[in-house]
């Protein structure tokens, strides 16, 4: 089960997604947790068949379910709803602004299960709450680094403090690329296998340049120089040059960097005076785009060299 969860109070307090929920009963259960972004319409459960009920999901009752409860005999409805409320259900939500049946209101109040009502049509509400839950329940983390958009490629720059990540980002912005985040990158996992990075709200659009101080990229270079969020496509780590270390000079074997269980293409670039890191990062982004189109320069060269090194028949060497 997803370790990230939301309370029913979080649903009630939403102002961004327009859920427009009103609590009608079960106030004791507003601290119930929702762990899944999937919802359930418990039509069969209202008939007494609860074998496939998922209590951890939000239970949505539309016009069909409410009409069914109003049409069956009151005694039978009471039995079915009482049986349903024995489960640790996170909450019931009635759509279309329908008035909750008294028996449902009474049983949810007794069991401490929140009963909420939304004015939206069922299809509209399901779309809204699914988007809300998917956004809020996604795994997240934060990384010390810089995220830039280089030619449409989300490049996450890593490296120890003071190695030059922010200076590289500034140079890339001057070349026409776009800053997403500096210093702290908040990363959210998008299903099925994408990572989206953005800046902390308090320091958004700002970059710290040692000796210069903190500057606002948006104010200096305009709105075309920034992005609020970007999918992370590759990771580049800047490391201090070590003369005793053997660095990759061919690039035949691809390396990967794991974030939130997703592997991203990874490149380690040694830093030393005289190396134009901005150009290297820009070329790395271009090369990433080529690889995405199925063109791998290093492997193509290797294949050509291997083909030329093949042993030829003796007669082919004599004119």
UniProtKB/TrEMBL annotation:
Indicate the segments forming the HPr kinase/phosphorylase C-terminal domain, all copies. Answer: 136-304
Main EC class the enzyme belongs to: transferase
Pfam families reported for this sequence: Hpr_kinase_C, Hpr_kinase_N
List residues binding Mg(2+).
Answer: 166, 208
Protein residues bound to ATP:
159-166
The source's domain of life comes to: Bacteria
Q: Looking at the record, which segments are called Important for the catalytic mechanism of dephosphorylation?
A: 270-275
Give the EC number.
Answer: 2.7.11.-, 2.7.4.-
Region: Important for the catalytic mechanism of both phosphorylation and dephosphorylation, residue numbers = 207-216
Catalysed reaction(s) here are: [HPr protein]-O-phospho-L-serine + phosphate + H(+) = [HPr protein]-L-serine + diphosphate; [HPr protein]-L-serine + ATP = [HPr protein]-O-phospho-L-serine + ADP + H(+)
- Please list the GO biological process terms of this entry: regulation of carbohydrate metabolic process
Q: Please list the residue ranges annotated as the HPr(Ser) kinase/phosphorylase N-terminal domain.
A: 7-133
Q: How does it assemble?
A: Homohexamer.
Other observations noted? Both phosphorylation and phosphorolysis are carried out by the same active site and suggest a common mechanism for both reactions.
Q: What does this protein do?
A: Catalyzes the ATP- as well as the pyrophosphate-dependent phosphorylation of a specific serine residue in HPr, a phosphocarrier protein of the phosphoenolpyruvate-dependent sugar phosphotransferase system (PTS). HprK/P also catalyzes the pyrophosphate-producing, inorganic phosphate-dependent dephosphorylation (phosphorolysis) of seryl-phosphorylated HPr (P-Ser-HPr).
Which family is this protein grouped under?
Belongs to the HPrK/P family.
Instruction: Share the domain note from the entry.
Output: The Walker A ATP-binding motif also binds Pi and PPi.
Q: What is the name of the protein in this document?
A: HPr kinase/phosphorylase
The protein's organism comes out as Geobacter pickeringii
């Amino acid at each position: 089960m997803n370790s990230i969860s939301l309370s029913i109070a979080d649903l009630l307090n939403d102002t961004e997604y327009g859920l427009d929920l009103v609590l009608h009963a079960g106030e004791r259960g507003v601290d119930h947790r929702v762990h899944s972004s999937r919802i359930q319409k418990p039509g069969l459960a209202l008939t007494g068949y609860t074998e496939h009920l998922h209590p951890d999901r939000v239970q949505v009752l539309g016009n069909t379910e409410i009409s069914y409860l109003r049409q069956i005999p009151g005694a039978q409805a009471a039995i079915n709803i009482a049986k349903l409320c024995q489960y640790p259900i996170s909450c019931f939500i009635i759509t279309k602004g329908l008035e909750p049946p008294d028996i449902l209101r009474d049983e949810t109040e007794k069991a401490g299960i929140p009963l909420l009502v939304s004015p939206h049509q069922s299809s509209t509400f399901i779309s809204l709450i699914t988007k809300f839950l998917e956004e809020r329940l996604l795994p997240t983390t934060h990384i010390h680094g810089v995220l830039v958009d280089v030619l449409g490629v989300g490049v996450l720059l890593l490296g120890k403090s003071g190695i030059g990540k922010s200076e590289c980002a500034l140079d890339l912005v001057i070349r026409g690329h776009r800053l997403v985040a500096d210093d702290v990158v908040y990363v959210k996992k998008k299903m099925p296998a994408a990572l989206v990075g953005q800046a902390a709200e308090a320091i958004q659009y700002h970059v710290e340049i040692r000796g210069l101080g903190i500057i606002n990229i948006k104010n200096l270079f305009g709105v075309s120089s920034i992005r609020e969020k970007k999918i992370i496509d590759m990771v580049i780590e800047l490391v201090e040059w070590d003369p005793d270390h053997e660095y990759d000079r061919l690039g035949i074997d691809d390396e990967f960097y794991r974030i939130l269980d997703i592997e991203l293409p990874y490149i380690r670039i040694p830093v030393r005076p005289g190396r134009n890191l901005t150009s290297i990062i820009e070329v790395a982004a271009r090369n990433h785009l080529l690889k995405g189109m199925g063109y791998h320069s290093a492997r193509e060269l290797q294949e050509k060299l291997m083909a030329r090194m093949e042993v030829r028949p003796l007669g082919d060497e004599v004119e």
